[in-house]
Description:
The strands form three sheets. The chain has a five-stranded parallel sheet with strand order 4-3-5-6-7, sandwiched between helices. A five-stranded parallel sheet has the order 9-8-10-11-12, with helices on both faces. The protein has a two-stranded antiparallel sheet with strand order 1-2. It has helices at 8-14, 16-24, 40-48, 58-73, 83-86, 109-118, 136-140, 159-177, 183-194, 196-204, 207-214, 231-246, 282-294, 327-346, and strands spanning 28-29, 32-33, 51-56, 78-82, 97-103, 125-130, 143-146, 222-227, 249-254, 271-276, 298-304, 315-319. A hairpin with a 2-residue loop joins strand 1 and strand 2 (32-33). It is built from 14 helices and twelve strands. Helix 10 (196-204) packs parallel to helix 14 (327-346) and helix 11 crosses helix 14 (327-346). It is α/β, with parallel strands linked by helices. The chain is globular, with a radius of gyration of 20 Å. The structure holds 5-amino-5-deoxy-1-O-phosphono-D-mannitol. 5-amino-5-deoxy-1-O-phosphono-D-mannitol is lined by residues 57-60, 103-105, 108, 111, 155-157, 240, 244, 356, 359-360.
Amino acid sequence: DKGPYRHYMLKEIFEQPAVIAETLEGRIYKGRLLEESFGHEAKRLLDAAKGVHIIACGTSYHAGLVARYWLEEVGVPCSVEVASEFRYRQVVVPKDTLFVTISQSGETADTLAALRESKKMGYLGSLCVCNVPESSLVRESDVAVMTRAGPEIGVASTKAFTTQLVALRLLALALARRHGMDREKEKTLVEELESLPRQVEVALSLSEAIEEMANAFAEKTHALFLGRGTFYPVAMEGALKLKEISYIHAEAYPAGELKHGPLALVDADMPVICALPNDPLLEKVLSNLQEVRARGGELFLFSDERIRINLDHYHSLTLADICPSTAPIVYTIPLQLLAYHTAVLKGTDVDQPRNLAKSVTVE
Ligand code: M6R
């Protein structure tokens, strides 16, 4: 039932504050991670893990890419790969590496095959981040950290992605504990997670303004998403959403790569979308955006209200009170809404985009 919403996708976008809170339920308490909630087997694996390999497809892969920054930040070596490549590569497994899969459905053929393959490869064990308790992935993994997004009907993944990121933040906290995170730091990070549903709520309140913004996209044939750090995979996710449901060709680039090729594509017909959080890479991103402006590219920014943007012309919507550790989750929301409203304007089948299936159970 779509309730008052026109599409399942919009309903699922608006469910995010609730399902994020649900995913945190019973897992954090009074500034502490309740690690026991991961189950007994998890402790053994997390104690022993010296590194992590993350395998996933599509949107779930993007969640893995964000998590890599989080894990490396606390000192855990991490590599991330799409399952279809992992399967056919001669993988060298470093000692004591935990095999992590991420999947909404838990039935994606390549991800499942990669998990099965991993069992013969000398990994420490397997952990999955998954949304479907009775799925093959959950049954066949040593540990399952469930996302509690509820059924996701729209083919374009939205609430599954943000709840995956929440589960991966919890995993990062568990590993950070083993890498010297003190109580004070843990408290801050847990509080940042606790305030996430409220912040996502604020991001959702931009929906009407984004609908307005989408008018500038409906006639475009291309779009470029830029980001640095964790916001690069967020840009990849924004581009995937736009191409999946509006059929506009969209690419994501790390902003620092512009000069190495994609800048040649920028002219007045190329909308450039970028999240501008208040983070240490801000000045660098702004100077990349300056390059876009110099070529006449039209900028669409989602930025932190505290920052000053010294660009001659841009469209921007601002977010307030965003915490650094959860900012990639919050900034995903306006990108989902932009894709959604653009697709509605174009009149595509938002919930069932052409050529795509919700769950890819064949190779
Ligand atoms: O069920 P999974 O998370 O394993 O699915 C992976 C991808 O097929 C999925 O994320 C796909 O890319 C979505 N259509 C993205 O919106």
